[in-house]
Design goal:
Blueprint (H helix, E strand, L loop, with lengths): L5 H11 L34 H14 L6 H9 L26 H14 L3 H13 L17 H13 L14 H7 L33 H11 L25 H15 L6 E2 L9 E2 H13 L3 H14 L1 H22 L11 H6 L29 H10 L18
Antiparallel strand pairs: 1-2
Helix pairs in contact: 1-14, 2-4, 2-12, 4-5, 4-6, 6-8, 8-9, 8-10, 10-11, 10-12, 11-12
Length: 416
């Protein structure tokens, strides 16, 4: 994640056909929102690439902390749905009918399904969304970010989480005889690959001539997503029975649980000092990757690696508060979900109340854990929702990005 909305940007960049990312644009100024911000929306940054994403993530995180979001916030999200059931990242005029040029995508739709299913009472909305997701499933059993786009680990895993949240059996959702788990298996790096066997790739790389798919490159971001997808879990996953791991099982022979274990092994090895991931974005390689570390905490907890998950969470608790303040609702939500995964108290994240800070990013929640209807945080953050989205947009505008994901505003370079 720095907040998974990089997905929208990278998908757009991929369509326009770019190749390599220039050196860091971390100092790129944040543009002002291009539209008037709806009163029910979380965050103050431009929502055109991540409005539905950050709203959905906020709802999921609040749900884990027994906080009910404001009705107008929920109404904004449900109002973003198109007639066919899909969601775009943001529609400024929700009363206007969606058309062929409306940029609907699997990630926004799947995230909205997970969030609304958690809240309950939105079966009609989630049912239509699931119907749309099924209609755009690829013949390999997976999903790409855009309808018809090549399947990737992150999008496929997100949809698996949405299907489970809506009461569907992902293994029974098939296209061309293939299930989503078949798609994930095809995106698993062979065990024979040194320093990455068992990991997930985002998508296949490019061959030397660019005419056919190339090798699968280990990707930490995709691996964190793939662990959850393989286990049939969503973004708000919790810890499971302890699993010590084992020998890597080759794709084609591995069960989904074995695939998850292989990716979890890879993630544990990737943690610097056992505590955090480092950025692999050009020009930022020496900086910690807070968003991907938070996602890795959730993945490791879900895969039954509590010791590794708790150690990484402890590092976040000591170091990630400033990142969250600059990252807005999705960043706070990521940390709340990490706390939930390891059974920690998100209201006592060092000296930060993550739940209160998240609530302060949008309209006052309807209710708190104690049943009170109070604002879940009085100090509004002034540097909200900067994420990495605009940095990635800047990268895309300059040179584009060879897609290597994502699923957060944290593009993990392939080949890591």
């Amino acid at each position: 994640m720095n907040v998974r909305r990089t997905a929208a940007v990278l998908a757009a960049v991929a369509v326009t056909g770019a190749a390599t990312a220039p050196a860091a644009l971390a100092e790129t100024p944040k543009p002002s929102p291009s539209v008037a911000l709806p009163s029910g929306l979380y965050g103050k940054a431009d929502p055109q690439f991540d409005g539905v994403w950050r709203q959905s993530l906020a709802f999921l995180a609040q749900h884990t902390a027994s906080v009910r979001p404001a009705d107008k916030a929920v109404d904004w999200l449900t109002g973003q749905q198109c007639a066919d059931g899909s969601f775009a990242p943001f529609r400024a005029d929700a009363d206007a009918a969606c058309g062929s040029k409306t940029p609907v995508d699997s990630n926004s739709t799947a995230a909205a399904v997970q969030a609304l299913a958690a809240l309950g009472g939105h079966e009609k909305t989630t049912g239509k969304a699931v119907g749309w997701l099924k209609s755009v499933q690829n013949k390999d059993g997976g999903w790409g970010y855009n309808p018809g786009g090549a399947s990737d680990t992150n999008s496929t895993s997100l949809v698996i989480g949405a299907l489970k949240a809506a009461g569907e059996d992902p293994a029974a959702v098939r296209k061309g005889g293939k299930s989503p788990f078949d798609a994930l298996d095809a995106l698993t790096v062979p065990c024979t690959v040194k320093d990455g066997g068992g990991a997930f790739a985002f998508q296949p790389g490019k061959s030397a001539g660019g005419q056919r798919p190339g090798p699968l490159e280990p990707n930490a971001d995709a691996s964190a997503a793939g662990v959850l997808g393989s286990l049939g879990k969503g973004l708000a996953a919790t810890g499971s029975e302890k699993d010590a791991g084992g020998a890597c099982v080759e794709p084609g022979a591995a069960t989904p649980k074995e695939s998850a274990a292989g990716a979890a092994d890879y993630l544990e090895k990737e943690l610097t000092g056992g505590t955090h991931l480092m950025s692999v974005m050009p020009g930022a390689e020496k900086k910690p990757d807070f968003g991907n570390t938070a996602d890795t905490v959730v993945a490791l907890a879900a895969a039954g690696r509590p010791d590794a998950a708790e150690k990484a969470y402890g590092w976040l608790e000591e170091n990630a508060a400033d990142w969250a303040r600059g990252g807005g609702p999705a960043a706070y939500a990521q940390l709340v979900l990490a706390a939930h995964a390891v059974g920690a108290d998100p209201r006592a994240f060092g000296s930060t109340d993550l739940v209160g800070a998240l609530g302060a990013q949008g309209p006052a929640p309807e209710s708190q854990k104690d049943g009170s209807a109070e604002d879940a945080g009085q100090d509004k953050e002034k540097d909200e929702d900067g994420n990495s989205v605009w940095w990635i947009v800047g990268v895309g505008l300059v040179a584009g990005i060879g897609v290597g994901f994502l699923f957060s505003s944290r593009n993990k370079k392939q080949g890591k």
